[in-house]
Amino acid sequence: WVESATTGLGRVPAADVATTMAAITRDRGPLTIDRAGGGLIAWPNGQLPYFAGGYVYEDLANATSQERVGTLLDKPARRLPYTGTTAFHGVFNREAIDVWRETASLRSHSGEAMPSRVRRVSADGFTVTAPRFTSSATSGGTRNQPESLVYTSSGPHRFPDIRRVDLRTGRTTRVVTRVAGDAITVSGDWIYFDQIEFAGAVSRYADLYAANLVSGRTVRRSHGQRLSDADISPRGDTMVAVRSSLGRRELGVWPVTRAADGSPTLADAPSRVVQQPDCAFATPRWSPDASRIVAVRHCSGELPGTRHLRLAT
Hints:
The chain has helices spanning 2-7, 15-28, 33-37, 47-63, 66-74, 87-92, 96-108; strands at 127-134, 148-154, 161-166, 172-177, 184-187, 190-199, 203-212, 218-220, 227-232, 238-245, 248-258, 264-266, 272-274, 279-286, 292-299, 305-310. By secondary structure, the chain is an alpha+beta fold. Helix 4 (47-63) packs across helix 5 and helix 4 packs across helix 7 (96-108). Helix content is 22%, strand content 34%.
């Protein structure tokens, strides 16, 4: 909440957070404090407490003042861990659970319904990230309408993996296992993804892998380069990715060729590197005509922002 109140950005005003919270409360009603805290969920993670808690503090600030909410947040800093909820009574003369119930009830009747055009396509029930559409090519080389969606899925009783859901039938199939990683990118029948692998006894590096959606074959395409967040160009012949090295995160562009068996091969070294002192790059994505790359740049002393990089220059 502090981040959003200070900058006007962050989780509280975010549209994707509002859609997620609307989907959670649409069928089950107001979100209870136990459910948000993970006590009633098979495999809790850290997102829901941030999302729901940010709304609680925002509603409190609107009903009272930001100064009183600031006082509430200062008090637990002087207390033992897990005893912060007792500060609610001292500041608002109400227990934390009562404040939660009031704000949750208001939110559930505020008209923030899930948009009718939004359709749920996965039913894993746990953490789902990095979705990308897949589609077949026409005879002219253009892409048809999306046929399926690939995404990373993780749960408490199985190994993390990449899954594929058919958008017409809703049938989900497992593609390949995956350890950590940031993104998935698709070119034809091949998907590219980064994951963590051991290098020696204790070192762990992020490298790029490719998996064929038809045969299920998986090949490793980089070794020890610390590559992540990759995106393949629309023609499938160039890859952009984030490379972490020497305390910085830079962008690299690699040519992609095809071996005799059709599997993609990444060049040993990038054809171009984009870096800037005291700055970190993330989430590079190609433009539709492959003439530019859009990436997030975060430099010391300023908020993150997007940057357009023209390959010709």
